[in-house]
Amino acid sequence: MSATASAEAFNSSNSASVGSSGNIIPVQPGCVKPWIVPNLDPLNPSTTCWTTTTNCQPFVDLTDGHIINPGMSVNGGNATGVIGERFLLVPDCQRRITANCTPQPGSLANQPTSGSFLPTQPNLEYLPGQTLYASAAVPSAASAGSAYEQAIAGCDQTTVYYCGVPSAAPIGNGPNMVDLNENPASTDDTTNGVMALIHEGNPNPNGGQPDGQDSFSPYGSPSSYPFQIFPGSGNPTGLANTIPITASNSVVSLPIYDQTGNTFPSFSPTPVAVTIVGFLHVFINAADQYGNVDVTVLNVAGCSNGSGTPVGTAITANSPVRFV
Prior knowledge:
- The chain is mainly β.
- It has one domain (8-209, 252-324).
- The chain is built from two helices and 14 strands, in the order E-E-E-E-E-H-E-H-E-E-E-E-E-E-E-E.
- It has helices at 147-153, 189-198, and strands at residues 9-11, 27-29, 35-38, 86-91, 123-128, 176-178, 215-216, 229-230, 251-257, 272-274, 276-287, 293-302, 315-317, 321-323.
- The strands form five sheets. It has a six-stranded mixed β-barrel. Strands 1-14 form a two-stranded antiparallel sheet.
- A hairpin with a 5-residue loop joins strand 11 and strand 12.
- It is globular and about 50 Å long.
- The two termini are 25 Å apart.
């Protein structure tokens, strides 16, 4: 018995240039992780852009949503494109203030290394997204955690991130919100959520990785195409390190916000609205005990900030890249 199948991939980036309507057709992925990242590529052009955010190129263009640095790279760098880049997602929250998330001063990308818990470069700061609703498929290891932790470990199907819609627009469930009451830099919420999601055993990076989770070959920085994922010892298939797999809990999506038009107070007890300009599709390599998440970029989808090319009705999908 044999079977064949075909699929057409749709990426919303610069979609207005190929459609008859002239509008951008954004994709609204489901189960998005509540890590809202700025529109800054920490590896384009280099890791020296921490001195000023203007030195970092954006992931997507704010006018029409096209990908600024398209193409694929190997070995975790940025030789020929954004896909394949490897960097750390780090909390944009001050660790010494434990009650809430007071955003870090300075750049949003490639903060310099200083102290035992601060990340290595390249890195990109994330803010915690607001999570109001119960998540589905939450592993038992995270079932007693906060709604934010459960949204990482499971699937938050209810929170909708509206791509290309200005932050003040009251559409659907409301604007996209950052929750500064959550501080992943001083709690274990991000670490525990990631560990439960990807079956990671030990968050200490000095303990040796991978330690249960699925992983690329070689770990974190694939050296050839196509990128191969191998199941870890915690993978429920029981096929640890035997054959490549095509689906993994380590593959996630997260929203990109327009940091040029959104600023944050030192702290706000109420959620703060931001404009989502695209989505980042990444593979989680591991999380450490400080809320830092090691990721490799799999794709980028852009939709602009709504101030340029008109944005049409979004297509719902499980991924930033819709297969139709």
